[in-house]
Amino acid sequence: MDHHRARQGLLILAVAGLLAAAAPADPPLRAARWLAPAARLAALTREPAECLGRPPRAGAARSIAIGRAAFRAPLLLGGQAARAGLSCSSCHRNGRGNPDFLFPGISGAPGTADVTASLLSSHRGDGIFNPRPIPDLAGPLTARKVSRDRDDPALAAFIAGLITQEFDGAEPPPRVLAGVVDYVRALSPAACRGDATVPITLATYLGDVRRALDAADIAWRARDKAATRLMIGAARSSLGAIDERYAVPGLADSRAALEDADLSLAAIQRAIDNDPARVTLRLAAWRGTMPQWTKPLIASERESLFDPGILRAHLN
Fold first, then answer.
1. Same domain, 76 and 102
2. Contact predicate 102/35, CB 8 Å
3. Which of 60, 142, 254, 258 to pair with 237, CA 20 to 30 A apart?
4. 12 lies in a domain?
5. What residue ranges of the chain have pLDDT lower than 50?
């Protein structure tokens, strides 16, 4: 084993060990492992409202759709972050901030992160523990450190650096990177209206699945295999988040339906290379089956960990 692979293996063990040490009671939801214990119930039942502005130009909506899905996909970050289940939205919930983020070895006070931690980066790790507050991406314009001007390439370079340097991820497909940049640019304090937070429900995650598959269709129509694969991966990540919520006694049928749906998506991912002529049809057919396999999920939602009372009992 060469030095780089040995280092990666040690980092895997370090991440796993820190998560285990931080969560001796083994919280039922993975996201609970990087939330301050006192805030877990609130943070797992409500999230900041998404402040997403109107697309600024023709075609931007399609790019934003791809970026929004990628922002929620651990696959985008890769490396140890993906193995731990972290995505951009783990720190920036719904494109906002996360005052309750508390990842062992990465955070100091809740809501902070060390972006030069060797734990997650072999490129930017500096051996100094210096966590900083996680910014709200829809926060005040005066608080922004990177220009979001459409004629300025700084934001694209910054995000690409975060993925490949801060998290050791692979270079993202150009269409995906452009989408994430457009999504971040579309987050605006002017778009923050109504309630400050919204409930996290089955419909929340099913909506993310649908939007990720819409983005997959957009990418596929553009003949972008890599972006399509990542978009389907984002949908599968959302299915996994739903599955966690149904991992309680008596809901085996609901979880079996989720497993079948996920296996079908995995088959479509393979078809991108093996049977490309049928990808569009298979994506449409999969979406067409959603009313059938979501029916038992909807019927049993109040018995799952989407219910605040049941979740509270499992967190204690």
1. yes
2. yes
3. 60
4. no
5. 1-24
Kindly state the DSSP code that residue 93 receives in the 8-state scheme. Answer: G
**CA pair distance 70, 239, nearest whole angstrom:** 15
Give the per-residue pLDDT at 25: 56
Last residue of a domain, one of 155, 172, 191: 191
For residues 55 and 217, is the Cβ–Cβ distance under 8 A?
A: no
pLDDT (tens digit per residue) in 228-261 = 999 999 999 999 999 999 999 999 999 999 999 9
- Give, in order, the Cα–Cα distances in Å from 211 to each of 64, 66, 69, 238, 299: 11, 9, 7, 11, 22
Same-domain status, 235 and 128: no
Say what the pTM is.
0.90
The predicted pLDDT at position 10 comes to 35
Element (H, E) at 306: none
**Domain total of the chain:** 2
Closest CA to 84 of 93, 94, 75: 75
